[in-house]
Amino acid sequence: MACDASVLAEVKMCSGNYVMAVNDTMNVISGKWKLPIIGSLLYGKKRFKELERDIEKITPRMLSKELKDLEMNSIVSRTVHNTIPVTVEYELTESGQRFKAVLDVMVEWGIEHRRNVKSEIMGVKL
Amino acid sequence: MACDASVLAEVKMCSGNYVMAVNDTMNVISGKWKLPIIGSLLYGKKRFKELERDIEKITPRMLSKELKDLEMNSIVSRTVHNTIPVTVEYELTESGQRFKAVLDVMVEWGIEHRRNVKSEIMGVKL
DNA sequence: TATACCGGTATACTTTAGTATAGTAGTTAC
DNA sequence: GTAACTACTATACTAAAGTATACCGGTATA
User: Which domain of life is it from (chains A, B) (predicted)?
Assistant: First the structure.
């Protein structure tokens, strides 16, 4: 029987890999600013200052730090163009773009969940 | 045009809801222990001490705190049975169980990502 | 020469998250 | 009566995450 993470009964057998994969994913979204950065880059490549302007209230220190994390984890690529002055472009890698699938499911669940909780509070059976 | 979170072009229109839904989901998994707890409860209802034993190194303080958070967010339900002594059972709500879909996509992405990064490091084109 | 843009870094601080350790009230078994 | 189980809570602490503020070297513009 192959290790298929989508089958609950098999999780026990493959729990090491399952947990490892979830942790990998969690690392990508850990911290206050990673999702805003990824979200911003979903619209296309951006320069440092563009990101700084796009993402409200982020400080250059945090932007720099989070971009480094994302680059290390191969979510974002950094390209230096030797224009004068130098320009630096940040872009989602293929993995980074595929991450949108995770976001989509999170959104789906979030919307459903909110619907459920609301109807529960209002005592309504949908 | 309806607000469909899965279509990137529409995100701008509906970005408020999109962001809100992602935040809802993030709240569920924020913190070191929420996923271990949810993971443990995927196998069925558990009592406090069972969870404490299942989840390595968690302290009762954190377990209690995280369970309260999860209960407040309608991910987990708490039932007191008036046996002697009282037993308390924690169980995933419907929303909590549906959350497995999010975990599955996270696992899928995590595995794919790891494959990509590894082949990149080894200079292999799959 | 002064001002502003670029892509950041340095230092010091606050705030939040998590840990360690002990203790609670009630019940049961020896 | 004493030890052990249940489901927790309280207090005090440490560690991690994030913020505020200022600054860097380089270039271009007025």
Answer: Bacteria
Q: How many residues does chain B have?
A: 126
What's B51's domain CATH number? 1.10.10.10
Answer whether B22 touches A (CB < 8 Å). Answer: yes
Confidence of residue B9 (pLDDT cuts 50, 70, 90): very low
Interface mutation vs chain B, best among A15, A23, A25, most B CBs within 10 Å: A25
Question: Where in the sequence is the domain holding B105, given as residue range(s)?
Answer: 31-121
Task: Please say whether the beta carbons of B22 and A107 come within 8 A.
Answer: yes
* Total of domains in chain B: 2
The answer to whether A56 CB is within 7 Å of strand D is no
Detail the DSSP E strand segments found in chain B. 46-47, 76-81, 87-92
Query: CA B83, B86, B91 angle in degrees (round to 5)?
Result: 100
Question: Distance, angstroms, CA A27 to C1' D16?
Answer: 15
Tell me how far apart the alpha carbons of residues B92 and B78 are, in angstroms, rounded to a whole number. 9
